[in-house]
Amino acid sequence: MTENLQSRCLANWNMEMKLDPAKDDLPLMANTRHMLVKHYVLDLDVDFKSQVIEGTVVLFFEPGSRCEKGGSAGEGPCLSQSYETCKIRASEPCHSPVTNVSACSSKTEYNDFAVCAKGEKDTSDKNGNHSNREQVSGISSSKNCYDIENHGNEDFLLVLDCCDLSVLKVEEVDVAAVPGIEKFTRSAKLTDAEELRNLRNQIVHELVTLPADHWREQLYYYTRCSQAPGCGELLFSTGPWSLMIGKAEVQAPRDFPHAIRIWYKTKPEGRSVTWTTDQSSRPCVYTMGSPINNRALFPCQEPPVAMSTWQTTVRTASCFVVLMSGENSAEPVQLQEGVLSWYYYVTMPMPASTFTIAIGCWTEVKQESHIADIRTTNEFSSLFSRADLRLIEGSCGHVTYPCRFQNPAASSQLVIPHRVFAPWCLKDRCAEILLELIPRCLSAAHGTLGTHPFSRLDVLIVPSNFSSLGMASPHIIFLSQSVLTGGSHLCGTRLCHEIAHAWFGLAIGARDWTEEWISEGFATYLEDVFWAVAQQLPHDEAREQQELKALLRWRRLRDEVQNSEEELQVLRPNKENTGEVSESGTCIIKHGLNAEKIFMQVHYLKGYFLLQSLAKRIGEATYFEFLRKFVQKFHGQLILSQDFLYMLLEDIPEQKGYGLSVENIIQTWLDTSGIPKPLLEECQTWDQCRLVQQVNDEVTKWIQVNQRARKRSKRKRRQDEVTFQKLLPDQLVLLLESLLEEKTLCLRTLQCLEKTYHLDEQDAEL
To answer: How far apart, in whole angstroms, are the C-alpha atoms of residue 458 and residue 473?
Structure first.
């Protein structure tokens, strides 16, 4: 039987190695339709000296949808030809045995910036991969592609997404040995091995299916079970993109251990986290939104359908602060002199890709005296007060968890508890800008969409190597230091964008990662709405600013479409196959590793223009009332584009009479490259906006100034002086973009521009 597992492992490894390295697709290898992770318990030590995170992760499983539907383990179809190959990193099969890998010892040694576990000798091969002495299984040697199936009497193989990790040991967890666990069993003491295996799986099933109001008890027993002894090592092996785990003579997922412990450590070059220094030159490590997500931080199931909860304990030197996706504001516990332990948990199931961690010498920026005005006077807030209280009377459509949407107190909470962290050198600037903005933006978001999906928020200014302006994760937002320069405009708009992701991107996620527009298009559209409410702008003024912003975004989209591959301009690249996976649950993310795509904004911009077009056609009041209904129905779930569009047209059926249909929206906006035809017609109206006309007048003045400067007129400067109007930040962006289109701007004009608008004091966008 072991030879059977070994041969399958080698077949899978060879299959991964044969994938076309010229492709830029990202493989998701986990066989989620066979087994589904419901909860992770991570127990980690952080060593800044070696730049390694080491520890264990315990995974609690339930049989996947294929098993629940009574599907056999027989051969299923392979992936369609649209799911072809992916770029891989070369590695080799693993053969080294691993023995006696122990838990993180209490004798761990620490220095000022390190927590180093002194365990057993590292027996990894040159790539850091391991397998136990009997070796393990792999994906069956199917003829062409990714599908992970069991054929005939072959042993079942669990496949997790894993990359850039050194896996040391995998074992089954004896959850039946936990004191008090009898409450989750229906049987007396058992001695038969098969009955004992069934008992352990029954305990896990009862634990993961506890009612939502038992969440504290559930977390308690997850902790106790994660600390239970092992009851047998499991066979395993690693491939370029996966960790494969098997148990001899277990042929069905329902019989496979439902609680397993994996001992592992990260690699300094791992792509899920980055080790660097902050702006105060202190060491730190954080997840920075890698294209490969978290598979180089811990073995996991990456497909979005693997919605799970988690709890994490992190031990590190006392000079560090650990921030993480967690519902609690963790208070550190001193384990020994110079060593602190931090604990976070999440009870709302979310994809493992949303897990975020940041460890550094962060300073908390606290409010001293100023209390922000968090009144919400915009028209959307009054609509919320009438509509949202009716909405919470309905039931939620997600799996059971302690949901804030069913809590009247949470639904009326305009501003959730929040904290701000930053390197010491940026503390004062954060106090000046962020502390005042956050409550205003949170209140504006609540006034627009209703209940905040998450109970609290941390905002962290991340190191200067962060490649974006911001990134949102459950309970935590990363912001670039760039948003702190200039006034509050860039910081406010970016903060609104990331806050919008709490609803679209996190509470409501895309079932297919290629549909990024569901997250980014909504966040881009909503940032304008939130920011207008946060500034308490009158309706007409807000509309003018949004028209100006639309013109700027149109110019960016036009330029991007002209200078990018057509295939990367499609919002739904898998088209009618969107959301499809193989019989086992494996799939690929088309262009998921494309370096150019990382910097493209087409999903932001085309998605934004689609939503703006729908709002204009339907009417803002009706549109936002619908959005709140949509959030109420789909929070805590994954969606496809058509879920949004079908509900929209069912909720507002009169639009069907005006030629609006799901099919033509998808064809016009989502499945086609280039500029959608309706947008080409609408873009001409933005030039007539009053704020745009002001900019055009100023551009004319500057062109005249430049022409005179180039002629080197001998007239006195006083005669040449021109009065320029004060411009809004977005107007100034449009002005500079327009002037850059001139063939030549002389040095004197550039100097005058800098002096007139104080360009060295403006925000990073300028």
So the answer is: 10
The CA distance from 759 to 755, in Å, is 7
Q: Which among 381, 342, 290 is positioned nearest to 621, based on CA atoms?
A: 381
User: What does the block give as tokens for 740?
Assistant: 């850059």
Taking the C-alpha atoms of residue 531 and residue 542, their distance in angstroms, rounded to an integer, is 9
Greatest CA separation found in the chain? 104
Between CA 318 and CA 315 the distance in angstroms is 9
Cα angle value 171/176/177 (rounded, 5°): 85
d(CA 699, CA 689): 15
End-to-end Cα distance, the chain:
65
Alpha-carbon torsion, ordered 419, 421, 425, 430, to 10 deg: -40
Using DSSP, state whether 202 is helix, strand or coil: helix
Do the bridges between strand 52-63 and strand 259-266 make them parallel or antiparallel, or are there none, so unpaired? antiparallel
Angle at 310 between CA 224 and CA 295, to 5 degrees: 120
φ, ψ (nearest 5 deg) of residue 589: -100, 110
Tell the residue number behind the tokens 């503390």, with chain if given. 427
383 vs 390: CA distance, rounded Å: 11
Q: Tell me the C-alpha distance between 235 and 28, whole Å.
A: 21
Report the candidate in 49, 50, 733, 639 with the shortest Cα–Cα distance to residue 397.
639
> What does the alpha-carbon distance between residue 415 and residue 222 come to, in Å, rounded to a whole number?
31
DSSP 34: T
What is d(CA 603, CA 514) in angstroms, rounded to the nearest whole number?
Answer: 10
| DSSP one-letter code for 353 | G
Is residue 498 part of the annotated active site? The answer reads yes
The contacts of residue 200 (CB under 8 Å, 6+ apart) are 172, 173, 174, 175, 176, 231, 257, 258, 259
Tokens in use for 24? 């830029």
Distance CA(533)–CA(539), nearest Å, equals: 9
Q: Cα 187 to the chain's mean position, in Å?
A: 42
Amino acid at 13: W
> For residue 379, what are its two tokens?
């028209």
| Cβ 534 vs Cβ 542: under 8 Å | no
* Cα–Cα distance measured from residue 191 to residue 260, given in angstroms and rounded to the nearest whole number: 21
Q: What is the pTM of this model?
A: 0.87
pLDDT tens figures, 453-485: 999 999 999 999 998 999 999 999 999 999 999
Cβ neighbour number for residue 52 with a 10 Å cutoff: 21
| Rounded Cα–Cα distance for residues 317 and 321 (Å) | 9
How far apart are the C-alpha atoms of 454 and 401, rounded to whole Å?
13
In whole angstroms, give the CA distance from residue 527 to residue 543.
13
**Token pair 């990363």 is at which residue?**
478
Beta bridge partners of 110: 115
* d(C-alpha 160, C-alpha 374), whole Å: 45
Let me know: does 694 contact 731? Beta carbons within 8 Å.
Answer: yes
- Marked catalytic residue, from 171, 172, 498, 520: 498
Task: Give CA separation, 184 vs 63, 179, 496, in Å.
Answer: 18, 11, 45
DSSP secondary-structure letter at 412? T
Summarised one tens digit per residue, pLDDT across range 609-663 is: 999 999 998 899 999 999 999 999 999 999 999 999 999 999 887 766 567 889 9
Q: What is the pLDDT of residues 286-336, one digit of tens each?
A: 998 888 899 999 999 999 999 999 999 999 999 999 999 999 999 999 999
